[in-house]
Design a protein that fits this description.
mainly beta, Jelly Rolls, 2 domains, 14 strands, 48% strand
């Protein structure tokens, strides 16, 4: 068959339902009951739906408890708050962690992506000793490409906040706005 353009309105299996696979071994796209999986999957995004308290100068796992989507059920939003993709490859990973203090006296805020319990990405903002955020808080933004083995590798996000006098701090969550979010999607082998 010669190379060319295929123009159709509908593609279905011969039975009218089931799975259609496009491509050859390695990189394929599969459509099952109208849902496509393949190159950019697994993928997920989750957010923190309410404030999570955080102790001063203590790395704390962020509990992203509400899924926006999770294509392959690889994100645990209730126990470990971690992404364990079931397909090996390179993943684009991103997170925004918004933090504040009860008094606005924040010196430093940071967020980290851990792979298998070890820090692999970090972002921090240092306001210098005595400076404050005027009660508005600050966000640490993370993104990068991480290789995952598709079986046991997992990712988690941690946050840290340093205040002037050990003030009470929060990781900001909201049920209607994505203030603190974590996501990833596969970009290739």
């Amino acid at each position: 068959m010669a190379d060319g353009t295929l123009k159709v309105g509908t593609i279905t299996t011969s039975s009218g339902s089931g799975t259609i696979t496009l491509g050859q071994s390695g990189e394929t796209v599969t459509v099952t009951n109208g849902i496509m999986s393949g190159h950019m999957y697994p993928a997920f995004e989750a957010y923190l739906s309410a404030n999570q308290s955080i102790n001063d100068i203590t790395d704390t796992k962020v509990q992203f408890n509400t899924e926006v989507f999770d294509t392959d059920n690889c994100y645990d939003n209730s126990t470990n708050y971690r992404f364990t993709p079931n397909k090996a490859g390179k993943y684009f990973v991103y997170s925004v962690v918004k933090q504040d203090t009860s008094t606005g006296n924040m010196r430093h805020c940071a967020a980290y992506v851990y792979k298998n319990g070890t820090e692999i990405l970090n972002s921090s903002t240092n306001f210098h000793s005595g400076d404050t955020t005027d009660g508005e808080g600050a966000s640490a933004v993370l993104n990068g490409i991480i290789d995952m083995n598709g079986s046991s590798d997992y990712l988690e996000v941690y946050a840290m906040n340093d205040t002037v006098a050990g003030d009470a701090s929060n990781i900001n969550g909201n049920s209607t706005k994505y203030l603190t979010v974590f996501g990833a999607y596969r970009i290739g082998a």
